[in-house]
Amino acid sequence: MSDMEGMDIRAPIGGLFSVLGMMLVLYGSFAPRSVGASDASGGVNVNLWWGAVMLVFGVIMLVMSRRAMSRPE
Amino acid sequence: MEGNPITHLATIDYAIMAVYFIAVLGVGFALKRVMRTSTDFFLAGKTLPAWVTGLAFISANLGAQEVIGMGASGAKYGIATSHFYWIGAIPAMLFVGLFMMPFYYGSRARSVPEYLKLRFDEKTRTLNAATFAVMTIFSSGISMYAMGKLFNLLLGWSFNTSVLASAAIVLAYVTLGGLTSAIYNEVLQFFLIVFGFAPLVWLGLKSVGGWDGLTAKLNAASIANGLPEGSYTHAWRGMTHAATNPIGVEWFGLVMGLGFVLSFGYWCTDFLVVQRAMAADSMTAARRTPLIAAFPKMIFPFLVILPGMIALALTVGHTGATGMIPAKMANGVPLVDAAGRTVLDFDLATPMMLVKLFPSGMLGLGLTALLASFMSGMAGNVTAFNTVWTYDLYQSHIKPGASDEHYLWMGRVATVGGILLSIAAAYVAGSFNNIMDLLQLVFAFVNAPLFATFALGMFWKRTTGHGAFTGLLAGTLGAAIHHGLTLPLGATAGVKGGYFGLVHTYPSELAQTFWTAIVAWTTCFVVSIVVSLVTQPRAESELTGLVYSLTPKPKDRDLPWSKRPATLALIVIVLIVGLNLIFL
Lengths: 73, 584
What we know:
The complex is a heterodimer.
Chain A: H1 10-30, H2 46-70
Helix pairs in contact in A: 1-2
Chain B: H1 11-32, H2 38-43, H3 50-61, H4 64-77, H5 83-86, H6 90-106, H7 112-119, H8 122-155, H9 159-208, H10 210-224, H11 251-267, H12 271-278, H13 283-313, E1 329-330, E2 333-334, H14 349-357, H15 362-398, H16 404-431, H17 433-447, H18 450-459, H19 465-485, E3 486-488, E4 504-506, H20 509-534, H21 565-582
Parallel strand pairs in B: 3-4
Antiparallel strand pairs in B: 1-2
C-alpha cells in the first residue's frame, strides 16, 4: 500500500486510535470516578487502562505506516 | 418518538464520536485525488493488499444489525448462535476463496451479475442485478431505520436527525473516495468493534463470575425454559431433535439449510462481500481475502454473541427493572407469553450491556463502534448498489458505449440516488412494519436458489443460460410454495407461511427458514440441469476463464507454502474443528 495510492490505511487507523486512546487515558486519570460508572466496572479504571492499550496499538500502527512509506520502492 | 431516553452521554462521549466522524471524512477527502477512473471508484483500482480487503470482507457483513442481532440471538439461543459463524460462514468463505475467486477475479467481470452475463446471458444477469439492486437499497434502509430507533430509545436523539446525519456522512465519504473509502472505513470499523466490545465482554464476564459463573446462571435459565441443562453453553447439545435445543432445529436442517444453502448463497454470490475481494491487488490476494477474513470471523462469536449470553445471565432470577434485558412492552405493559413468563426485548441485550457496564468515556467508544458499524453497513450496500446499477443496469441497458468519465459521474450520481432511496426505505420501514417483513421474505426466496446457479455455472460446462434463468425462477417459486404450505409451531397463516394451506408444521421459524432454503436450492439445481440438457450449450472456447474444467488452475506452487491459499484454509479448518469440540 505504499505505492501510487499515496495513503497507507495504517496511518488513519494509527491516528484515530492514538487520539482516542489519549483521550481515554486523560479522562481516566482526571475523572476516575466518572459519571455513570457502574458497580460492574468498579475497582477497575477501565478508561485509563483500555485507553493505554488503544494508544499503544495506535502508535504501533503509525510506526508501521511510517516504515512502509520510507522504504525504498 | 416519545419517552425518556435510557441514558445521557457526557462531553467525553460526544468528543469520541466527533473524533471518529472527523477521521471518516478525512479519509474520504484524502482519497478524492486518487479517484480518476471508474475502476478506481468502483473497484478501488484493484490495488488493495489482502489483509485490508480481508478485514473489509467481514466488516461489510458486520453491520450494526448483525452486532445487535447476534447479541439478541446470544440471549435467546446461547452459544448455539455461533453456528451462524462456524457452520453458517466459515465453510462457505473457504470455498469462495479456494474455488470461486479465480472466476470472479480472473474473468473480465467487474461485478457478480456481470459474471453471469459472461457465463450465461443478458437475461440471467439482469434478473440477478435488478433483484440485488432493490435488495441492497432496502437492507440499507432497514438498517438506517433500526439505527434511528435504537439511538432514539437509548439517548433520546431525534430519529430524523440520526438518519439524515448518518446518511450525509456516508454520502460524503463514498462520493469522495468510492469503494476505497468504504473499504478503509470498514477496516476502521473492524478495529473499533474489537476495541469497543472486548472490554465489554471482559467486564461482563467479571460481573457474572467468569465462565463458570456464566454457565451456572445459564443452566438455571435453560431449566426455567424447559431445556436440558447446559443448553445455552454447549453448541451441539440436544441437536439430534429440534425440541431439545434452544434454536429449535435438528442437525440436518442446520447443516444443510444454514451451513450449505444459505451460507454458500450469501458468502459465495453476494456482491456486497465479493466486491471487497475483487478490489484486491492480485489473484492470490483476492483468493486470500475470504481466508484471512475467516480468522476474525471465527472469534467474533466471543465479541458479539457473548454479550447477549451475559445479558441473559444478568437477567435470570431478576424481576422488573433490575434485570439487564428489559421486558418487551405492548401499550406500556410488559408482554407475557402463554406460559406466564415475561417476554424479553432481546434486541436490547447488547445496547443495555454497553449502557450499564461502561462508564462515560468507554460508553462513547462502544456507541461509536455501533455507529461505525451502522454507517459502514450502509456504505457497503451503497457501494455495491452503485456498481451494479452503473455497470449491470445503466451501461448494459440504458446507455452503452459512453466514456469512462461518464460512468464515473454516473457512479457518483448513483451513490446520491442510492442514499436517497435508502432514506425513503427507512421511512417506509417505520410506517409499514408488515411490508418490511414481506419484503425480507421475498428476498429470502430470491436468494435461496442462487448458489445452485453459480455452482452449476462454474463447475458444469454443460449448463446453459436458459437453464440458469429458469432454474433461478423455479427455485424462487419453489421457496414460495414450500413456505406457503408450512408454518412454524404456534404461528397463524399469513406472513409466517401457510397461505396456500397447511401441509407441515415446523418446530421453529428457523427450521422453516432452513428447509425453505433447502427446497429452493434443490428445485433450482434440478430444473437448471433438466433445462440445460434440452437446450444448446455454448462453445467450449467461449467459456475459458469462466468454468472450472476449461480454466488453467492458479499456480500456487510458486508461492512459499505459508502464503498458499490452501495452507491458510487448512489452518482455519483445524481451528474451527477445535472450537466446535471445545464448545461441544
